Amino acid sequence: MKENNPFREDREQLRELLNQYENFKNGRNHSFIEEDAFEKIIDYYQEKEDLSKAMEAAEIGSEQFLYSSRLLIKKADILLATRKYQDALDILEHASLLDGADINVYILKTDAYLALDQPEKAVTLLEEALSLFDGAEKIEMLFELADVYDDYEDFDKVFDCLKVILEDEPNNEEALYKICFWTDFTGRNEESIRLHQAIIDEYPYNELAWFNLGAAYQGLKLYEKSIDAYKYAITIEEKFDYAYRNMGDAYIRLRKYKEAIEVLEKVNELAKPEDVIFEAIGHCYDQLKNFAQARIQYRKASHLRQDDSKLFYKIGLTYFNEGQWQSCLKQLETAMKIQRLQPEFNLLAGECKMKLGLYKDAVQYFSNVVRIRPKNISGWEALIRCLYSAEYFEEALDQSQAALKATNGKTLFLFYKASVLLALNKTKEAILQLEEAMQKAPKLLKKFVELNPSILQNQQVVDVIARSKRNRPI
Asked: CA–CA distance from 219 to each of 160, 166, 192, 225, 255 (Å)?
């Protein structure tokens, strides 16, 4: 028994139809070709991207069926593909007189207006047409209108269209996916919460609605509520990797790093491993002071994102936190091959060199930082600390003065200047600087003492601190 092959039968029917069309076109016989047959022929040539033959078929078909709006719409579609936008609009105007209820007329007119950079006409057309349609066609029109508003950069109206779709079709997946993005983009989280709560009341097993609810809570920084919503989403759909991903971010915001690691590792199980997930897990281990595990995760991220110097810096930082200065420097060397003058890299390299007692090298790195970011306090602070520790007091005094000038007189550098002056035995000037610093920012005294804890053995310094505390308003 011969087995049926629908695909082969369709192909043979199409071949026969094309032969019939060629005979008809060339006057070889006078057989009749039906309207829908012309549509199939046009579709065939469009799929083959032979637009000239598609247009020829549309022209012949329109001559045979003078009142066919469908063939006119096909013709307009080809004109749009060949960038003859105004000609397409003229054809569509004729088609709308024949059948004003064909949704394709409005969709193609919209495409033409957008191509002519006339989005306001597209908006007006679609808004007026909405009342003509219902059901699936109305939904399609609303999606089209949302796209036009997007092109028109009226983003709140995009949200409005998607909201109307979901009020009519609460389980519409495309709208649920899209409105999550537009909620975040427009900041309309409260509305999104109300909308998705209503959907969940009617359809409690809609995991996308739970996910969007979680995302809206997350947008309002209500992380506990967002986590609860994500948990419902993954209870319904265990392999919902984006819910785990967002939940991980929420746990990190709450500083619940162990929980964050657990859900982020689930993301890697469910989806293709990503550098950002490995980096986030590394951050969690970093915060838990498990630096070895943090390093492992950062290295995994760096294998996937090899040109990111920041990851090598983060690996270096884990070594620094463990007191492994040489290992830290090795990672920073790799980072600085990619971004040589990144201030953070130079700052950390300088700190490592200080720890190793290589003060001249450290000074060089810190000097890079202050040169790149002259108004940034941290570079100046590190440079002066380094010079002080190396007992380069004259240079430390010069740099304290330069720091005051560059940072508009930040009080920290008055404290540092006072400390350096004391080291140079310029006691009178040092005490004056200290008194001024204590008047301006007494809370920074801790930094002054950290530079040289033995300074509290100086009676004049102790007197200044005591007077400042007595005179401070209660």
From this structure: 18, 20, 10, 11, 17
Q: How far apart are CA 173 and CA 206, in angstroms?
A: 10
Q: What pLDDT does residue 3 have?
A: 46
Cα–Cα distance for residue pair 266/261, rounded to 1 Å: 9
Residue in this structure with the two tokens 């005979």, named with its chain if needed: 23
107 alpha carbon, distance to own chain's centre: 31
pLDDT-flagged residues of the chain (< 50): 1-3, 7, 474
Tokens of 139: 């939904």
| Token digits of residue 267 | 């993301």
Report which residue type is found at 341. Answer: L
243-277, pLDDT tens digit by residue? Answer: 999 999 999 999 999 999 999 999 999 999 999 99
Percent of the chain with pLDDT over 70: 95
Distance CA(446)–CA(409), nearest Å, equals 18
* Helix (H/G/I), strand (E/B), else coil: 50: coil
DSSP 131: G
* Dist. CA 394–CA 166, nearest whole Å: 72
Whether 54 contacts 46, CB under 8 Å: yes
Report pLDDT for 235.
Answer: 97
Angle at alpha carbon of residue 142, lines to 90 and 129, rounded to 5°: 40
Give residue-wise pLDDT tens across range 17-45.
777 777 677 666 656 777 777 778 777 77
From CA 327, how far away is CA 336, in angstroms rounded? Answer: 14
Burial of 2 (0-12, 13-18, 19+ CB in 10 A): exposed
* CA–CA distance, 83 with 76 (Å, rounded to integer): 10
pLDDT at 1: 34
